[in-house]
């Protein structure tokens, strides 16, 4: 069950029904040990083309992103009973020349494990990333999503603005 | 007048009518001296909130982006007669964990000076950035735009996919 809710739970843990008792899920940043905790498998729920990464490949990518410091943040929620990552999302900060050398936060790869949906974990992930973008001085935060997620992101405070166009190589 | 056209002009210069004779405009990467050549003023045609940058602020941002190497490229076209930048666009490369640690190119801030439109400079800028994303191994390149630019980006090979949602702080 969702016990915490509304604005008051911004920094609180989400309490979920773990089957044998409540679980307290708090958000934290991705750690290098999370490759063993199903982080990449969770991403495969977002993009079926995702494949497991070797520990070496995971560590390489982790180090590349860590080198970006506060310009790239990945947040996760771990189920303490199973040791599995059940929600994640990322934000990277684009530095521009326009708007007085302004910065824009880009939210990417938000996903909640199918078995952990209904506890507002997605909203908490998005709020964490949005708060980060604001804290580091971005003048806006943006994301692209399918139109069926318009309502979800609307609840997170987003307004529809433009269209996204793509070339796949 | 546009003399070069079609696929054959991918790496050629654009020939424009400079009023007192043709001008040959080729694309190159942004240089640190371009703050004196109207680069930021050009961006103000894209975002009215853009303001001129001090030389110090320009150099700081330039260095931050240069440190990203091939993960952030800004291309410009300079009018050799006026010494002004008349077209630009940028692409940055996002490194992901999904898709086997895949990479995505994000095209941003494409603008052609109002007086230099009609010579396919915009298409050449977008093609330069798209080619870069492909060359560095991105599995796709994406951009957000207003719906009135759907046709322009369609000519550049893009297909509409998702919606963009935004929070302004």
From TrEMBL, chains A, B:
Annotated GO CC locations: endoplasmic reticulum membrane
Q: Where does it reside?
A: Endoplasmic reticulum membrane
The source organism is Canna indica
Where does the N-acetyltransferase domain start and stop, copy by copy?
Answer: 30-169
The record's keywords, sorted A to Z, are: Acyltransferase, Endoplasmic reticulum, Membrane, Transferase
Subunit and partners: Homodimer.
The name this protein carries in UniProt is Glucosamine 6-phosphate N-acetyltransferase
- The first-level EC class reads transferase
